[in-house]
Amino acid sequence: MHTTTHRGGRASGPRDAEAIFAATLGLLAEGGYDALTVEGAAARSGVNKTTIYRWWRSKDELIGAALVDSRLLEPVVPDTGSLEGDLVALARHIIGLLTGEPTRDLVTAVLAAAGHRPELARHAKVFFADRLSKESPVFARAVQRGELAADADPAALMDLLGGAIWFRLVIRSDTMTPDDAAPLVRTLLSGAARSS
Amino acid sequence: MHTTTHRGGRASGPRDAEAIFAATLGLLAEGGYDALTVEGAAARSGVNKTTIYRWWRSKDELIGAALVDSRLLEPVVPDTGSLEGDLVALARHIIGLLTGEPTRDLVTAVLAAAGHRPELARHAKVFFADRLSKESPVFARAVQRGELAADADPAALMDLLGGAIWFRLVIRSDTMTPDDAAPLVRTLLSGAARSS
Amino acid sequence: MHTTTHRGGRASGPRDAEAIFAATLGLLAEGGYDALTVEGAAARSGVNKTTIYRWWRSKDELIGAALVDSRLLEPVVPDTGSLEGDLVALARHIIGLLTGEPTRDLVTAVLAAAGHRPELARHAKVFFADRLSKESPVFARAVQRGELAADADPAALMDLLGGAIWFRLVIRSDTMTPDDAAPLVRTLLSGAARSS
Amino acid sequence: MHTTTHRGGRASGPRDAEAIFAATLGLLAEGGYDALTVEGAAARSGVNKTTIYRWWRSKDELIGAALVDSRLLEPVVPDTGSLEGDLVALARHIIGLLTGEPTRDLVTAVLAAAGHRPELARHAKVFFADRLSKESPVFARAVQRGELAADADPAALMDLLGGAIWFRLVIRSDTMTPDDAAPLVRTLLSGAARSS
DNA sequence: TAGTAATCGAGACGGTACGTCACGTCTTAAG
DNA sequence: CTTAAGACGTGACGTACCGTCTCGATTACTA
């Protein structure tokens, strides 16, 4: 865990934050969103329910904090030497996040909740903006290499790539493995046009 | 509403199905998934709680029935004469669904909840499968016209198109108007590579 | 069963009264008062719930009818040649009614309900008055034999005898067997006074 | 009411125990066992339903607690100097309980329900056992005075006395006044035999 | 033998209460 | 200042029976 336990700066959480986060993520991973209850997390972490409510106003906020603390969602910035290679790496990473435990439940829970939680939505917005800015070298290099038009829109590309994976896995409940990354990227890069 | 109230065919729901569906969708749109409760829908539709439970075993089943009945989500199958035109039409429709009232709130509420509701997820799965099969003429025609490889994967294309819109609007909380459909489709079709 | 099925006199019950009564008493005997539900009795007797409600307004009324039909509670009028013998026989009979199946549940159910059902209470009143009048020969013979004062009150004696058994078995939840009849009668007849 | 509200000793019930008990007994007396519902008692006492369930697992347990708290049923232990006098006093007390308000309704409601409520029956059992043990001095003194055989069974005597009153008042719906106590006791003590 | 009541089955419904769960809040006291 | 301990109000859950109602469909007496 990565909680700053320096206690002495700003109060940034309860003393047993790590235990609470562990319980939170554990319950989430074990039984899904509904299996995680504040009471359950309190019980498992040996902390009183009121302590959790003192620091996070809702289950979703707690999940968010636990997620941030876990660093499970840190972006990767591949540099394979080609745009296609980089995008495949990014796609594989996204697929991993959305299929692996415990990230799958965590991510879907948070982003689902964002729909009716403006605050969470704002967090998600800056999270993805930050992510995109970190990924920008990938596209800058591709432009330099001549693989990408100078006026191409990295955000649109990442929307297409990430959105397709999200849509297929989360919304359409289809399956994906890392091996599905390459074909998807090829479809994306080659354009759908052109006949066989 | 479109409930068959002919009562005389097979009984397919409670007498006041329409009022129940209206209440269901209304509550969903107004406050999201959690604001919709069986008790609330019963109260608003002037029906007893037990009547709802008599016909649908869960909130999710009720939502499914209400959505199907509403026909709000019926697919469009454009035929503009070109793949690009058709895709733009599809994209505009999707953008419309995800920005207009009341569909925006309904769709996001339901699909957000699908993340931790296996039953809802199943509904969504068959819904999108059905939708894709209805859209298949678009791609068949494109293949005939030579605009699309015969072995192209329509599902992947729709994942890219719909996913990008979903990701940008719902997850990244960005804005879109119907005018954003065309550039997106062009990015998708042209491949990211070659520049203007 | 003893239902008059002569149908032609006053309508006196549903066609399948016997099946309904059997189901009623069966459920009562098997699971006690709470296990008997109108729905359950209807289901078991293969009759529609509404048919039962058409003929009896409540569960208790149904029980009453089933009981009367069953003739399980017909009084006995012993004639053993002595008051003590007769009273012992009566006591044994009462003990039998209050310990045996299904009479125990039936009797307690009906008499319990009588507490807040004036009509049932009236029925009970005439039932016991009738019973007492049928038992009166026992006391008349005892007076003739000189075993009982001419001004003795048979009702008081039966209250004492029946009440003691009822109290012990039903209210104090104690146990009794037919063998407890003789000592009880002896205590009653000898008066409590007199030392060993 | 007699709840120890000293709160500081062991917590022995909810804060508003008295209001709950009052509501419980009120509903019981007014409408009998069935008119008492946990929801009703909660509403009348201004307490939430869950609070009642937190402290008593069933309606019967609640009734038991309310009755114990009320002290309405505390036994009397007369000492008039003679067995007959003591028994008459006991009989008058019982008659009072079964004819006065609110005890009549409470007692009949509870004991009627005991017939099909094992838990209530258990409560009644220990209640009467306790009562009998408290009354035992009456019989011990009678034995010492030579009014009662040393091997006489106090339980049987109280069954006869209480049972006769119960039977006449509750089951046979007859009337009784305190003046009926003396003749009844005389019949009991003198034995039914010998005449005036 | 047909007609016409009485009776019934089927199915839905509003309603009350059940007993449970988890929520989020509060107070009091301890560390 | 933080936490524990514990009680509480609140809303909703999903279930069980209640007792009622409206229809056809059966019966079965009766003319």
UniProtKB/TrEMBL annotation, chains A, B, C, D:
UniProt-listed InterPro entries: Homeodomain-like_sf (IPR009057), HTH-type_TetR-like_transc_reg (IPR050109), HTH_TetR (IPR001647), Tet_transcr_reg_TetR-rel_C_sf (IPR036271), TetR_C (IPR011075)
Keywords for this protein: DNA-binding, Transcription, Transcription regulation
Domain HTH tetR-type: 14-74
Record GO terms (molecular function): DNA-binding transcription factor activity; transcription cis-regulatory region binding
Feature: DNA-binding region: 37-56
Protein's name according to its UniProt entry: TetR family transcriptional regulator
Organism: Murinocardiopsis flavida
